[in-house]
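dumping this here before i forget
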Amino acid sequence: MDSIILRKEVQERIKEVKEVDILVGIPSYNNARTIGHVVKAVQAGFAKYFPDKKCLLVNSDGGSDDGTTEVVQNTTIEDFQSILLHYRVEPFFKIATPYHGIPGKGSAFRTIFEIAGVLNAKACAVVDSDLRSITPEWIELLIKPVIDGGFDYVAPLYHRHKYDGTITNSIVYPLTRALYGKRVRQPIGGDFGFSEKLAKFYLTKDVWETDVAKYGIDIWMTTTAIANNFKVCQSFLGAKIHDPKDPGADLSAMLHQVVGAAFDLMEIYPDIWKAIKGSEAVPAFGFQYAVGLEPVNVNVDRMMEKFKLGTKELSSLWKEFLSKDVLDFLCESQRLSKEEFRMPDNIWAEIIYSFAMAYHKKIMNREHLLKSLTPLYIGRVASFVIETWESGAEEVEDRIEELCMTFEDKRDFLINNWD
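structure:
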């Protein structure tokens, strides 16, 4: 594979560093406001939990013009006593480099993986650059299972606001759990740990010039690790507080990239997911505790409008592949008020599986197909919000568990109609 580490000063820095024990990557694009906190947390994590290890922070940047990379270079912890450290700490190294390739998080990760490979990093982690809730403990929780437990992939486990992460909760978690049999709660979490072996395995895959390298990289990495029998676990990191997204806002680009990546993976691993029966928990590390969460604004009336308008305009297209029961339900929904409307789990699971099969059979242009899922997704989220408005975090998690079981129960519908 041709090296994508093109910058001379980065190659010189790599020669100077020679080898590292631990590498943490931060992909970024115009995150000057938040990335300084992330850099400090990573450095404190290195110093506090891995003082005898040679550690490197890599900022892989998408061409920021707001001074992101300068913030990375200039941020440091001068006074280690402020984090209650009184012993000598191994030198801490930093590399900030623009990545090459198509714009997106995947290209940033590719640069991080390649630097990790060249420097023979034994354990690596990647964390988002817009995190406001990251602490030094995150670095320990993402790295220790690799170093001490022999795990290859450490997925994050967070407490999130009940209406944050709706793509995960309504599609990606139920689908990947039902298909691949592992209960990885945040398969597109953004913050994860991985082994040297897995990083090198990722680099052998031919995805870096595809749409996966935009939004689909997280689900690709999780699924690739599970489907290829790498040792997977999850670590509880507390709250995920980052720049929030309104689930009723326009998430269609992210939705179609993430779901498209999940459907592409179904094409790669049919022999594996067809043979799975049920699902099992994966080992979880970290002390679980209650956390305060920032509110997420939700406009249910606007979501219902988008759902009803989309249903009216797109029903003729969906007739190609949705069952009569589903189409009848969607038709009936046009007449229901917000208070009366609910989208049952079995209808939603059938919709997702039907879209997966239509994608597989190339019934129509795949991009048009995926974009047509947006109003149905918004309708499902609106239904979930209406149903859980008064519910606490545990009750909401119970509802997501019920949805996952429905996806598992309806697997036969998918398998029997796939070919």
